[in-house]
């Protein structure tokens, strides 16, 4: 059952949000997400400020999912998407987003927007639900990378790209490849051929080509350099430079990260 929530449910909403965000990261060691500190007071404050809160409950009435919508002129902004950690992959988030989509159509809203943290592997999920990347940007409060994603409500839900491929302005690209040897970071600006069975574990971008040697040296401190590549004989979860590339250089931002176990097979990369 999906429905709009009221201030009377603020405590329940805050508790579910905290639990979901505290257990939601695909890798250990990332900065604590803001949602993990959610309070009933902040939920009520958002409601007073005009936010709309939708919830999903199971047949027994237990809260299984929640999200918030902040109305702007001609646009709705989604935040605090949260599902019960014990009931993930049951469709609660999809149901909530579908309900918001229908409500936006009824309200004459032309666009829905949300911000997704790349290092938390969130953009591919929203891309499967019809959201398209619009802008990559760097938040100032955490060494992470975000992408703003948009959707025109009422349009067909078709899966699309989760990231904007580097364009001419992206002079330095780090492509992360995963195979049975571990991780390899390929650093450059052109294309390269991946080995048999390699999977794409991520793409990072730096706007300044003059930082090539600095970025290479920063990555080499954690692995074994070999020309324009650095090899790391560890899984993704154990490499801080992969988990948070901005710890290598503050302007090296993550452009793409698939969820662990969902890395796509590749034949070419986007950097060398």
From TrEMBL:
SUPFAM superfamilies: Acyl-CoA N-acyltransferases (Nat). Residues 11-154 form the N-acetyltransferase domain. InterPro entries: Acyl_CoA_acyltransferase, GNAT_dom. Residues 253-272 are annotated as: Disordered. One of its GO terms (molecular function) is acyltransferase activity, transferring groups other than amino-acyl groups. It comes from the Bacteria. Pfam families: Acetyltransf_7. This is N-acetyltransferase domain-containing protein.
């Amino acid at each position: 059952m999906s429905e709009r929530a009221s201030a009377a449910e603020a405590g329940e909403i805050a508790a579910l949000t905290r639990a979901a965000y505290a257990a939601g990261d695909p890798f250990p060691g990332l900065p604590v997400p803001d949602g993990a500190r959610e309070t009933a007071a902040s939920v009520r404050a958002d409601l007073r400020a005009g936010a709309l809160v939708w919830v999903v409950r199971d047949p027994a009435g237990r809260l299984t999912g929640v999200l918030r919508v902040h109305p702007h002129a001609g646009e709705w902004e989604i935040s605090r998407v949260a599902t019960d950690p014990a009931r993930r992959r049951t469709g609660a988030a999809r149901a909530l987003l579908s309900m918001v989509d229908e409500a936006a159509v009824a309200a004459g809203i032309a666009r829905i927007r949300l911000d997704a943290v790349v290092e938390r592997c969130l953009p591919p999920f929203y891309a499967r639900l019809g959201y398209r990347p619009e802008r990559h940007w760097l938040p100032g409060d955490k060494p992470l990378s975000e992408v703003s994603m948009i959707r025109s409500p009422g349009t067909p839900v078709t899966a699309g790209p989760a990231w904007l491929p580097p364009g001419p302005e992206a002079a330095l690209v780090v492509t992360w490849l995963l195979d049975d040897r571990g991780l390899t970071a390929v650093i450059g600006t052109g294309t390269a051929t991946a080995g048999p069975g390699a999977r794409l574990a991520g793409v990072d971008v730096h706007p300044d080509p003059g930082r090539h040697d600095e970025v290479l040296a920063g990555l080499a401190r954690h692995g074994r350099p070999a020309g324009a590549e650095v090899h790391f004989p560890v899984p993704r979860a154990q490499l801080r430079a992969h988990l948070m590339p901005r710890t290598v250089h503050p302007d090296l931002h993550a452009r793409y990260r698939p969820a662990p176990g969902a890395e796509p097979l590749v034949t070419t990369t986007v950097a060398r």
